[in-house]
Amino acid sequence: xxxxxxxxxxxxxxxxxxxxxxxxxxxxxxxxxxxxxxxxxxxxxxxxxxxxxxxxxxxxxxxxxxxxxxxxxxxxxxxxxxxxxxxxxxxxxxxxxxxxxxxxxxxxxxxxxxxxxxxxxxxxxxxxxxxxxxxxxxxxxxxxxxxxxxxxxxxxxxxxxxxxxxxxxxxxxxxxxxxxxxxxxxxxxxxxxxxxxxxxxxxxxxxxxxxxxxxxxxxxxxxxxxxxxxxxxxxxxxxxxxxxxxxxxxxxxxxxxxxxxxxxxxxxxxxxxxxxxxxxxxxxxxxxxxxxxxxxxxxxxxxxxxxxxxxxxxxxxxxxxxxxxxxxxxxxxxxxxxxxxxxxxxxxxxxxxxxxxxxxx
Length: 361
Fold this sequence. Notes:
Helix content is 39%, strand content 15%. By secondary structure, the chain is an alpha/beta fold. The strands form 4 sheets. Strands 7-8-6-9-10 form a 5-stranded parallel β-sheet, with helices on both faces. It has a two-stranded antiparallel sheet with strand order 1-11. Helix 7 runs parallel beside helix 8 (211-219).
């Protein structure tokens, strides 16, 4: 096995096709079975192009090939190799600027060299937040579960943040007063943002009655990463369902501040998806989930933008270098050999990119 780009596991059909090891002083020598490439036959073909390829790989060490190696260096002194502040705290060579956020003082945002695009590339999906809002009894939790099942069957990683479930733990110190409801939504939005940043499709399902707080959660994320789903079910329908018996208690005055009864619900004005009853009939949760999945698919949430990821960027750099090669017989012979070798490589998650490279060669 050897490493190319960010991948450490590369499988070859035979050890005869190994590139020279980086520590070897024998640059420009590849051993191949007896063949004839560009008029040269035998078991060894010499080229001057290996060194430029090595130089490309060396220049990518900090960003693509072996980011983790930087952490193993004594004192993490090689700051120039890291585009972020991964090791600044160890060497003491630089002191980051502190800031104040809310009641938190003297804090520093610590950026890591593994970013959202790296996690999305690993998961092969785009992280986002699907925010399901509506009255109690409108079917939010049922939709969330059906949506999670549907996405799971497509090989997508999801997690549900259910309003009641969160109040069993993270938000158990909050009441249903207006200020506590606002804090409930803020906390949920912050957690949902973290899930999206990890590359997970987060499904937040809670009444979230106030438009201002929902819009604030939208502002946490990049444009397009917050998808609001409004369960537009009339109050009388929700009250007739009353799956938890809460509307009955609210009407009897035993529950105060119940949304839709004595506390307002502010319907969204610009939701990405609105799910309504169809002529008085309710679609099944699976059908509603299919509607959301179709929207996600149409918006390209299940495909990755290759320009954001390391491997395609590396291949593009190789394209540029290959375009500069002169047309000497020696280099032309190597290009044919490199095409042959490329076709024997299997690189997890990057086979398509190297196939494009082979095609260009």
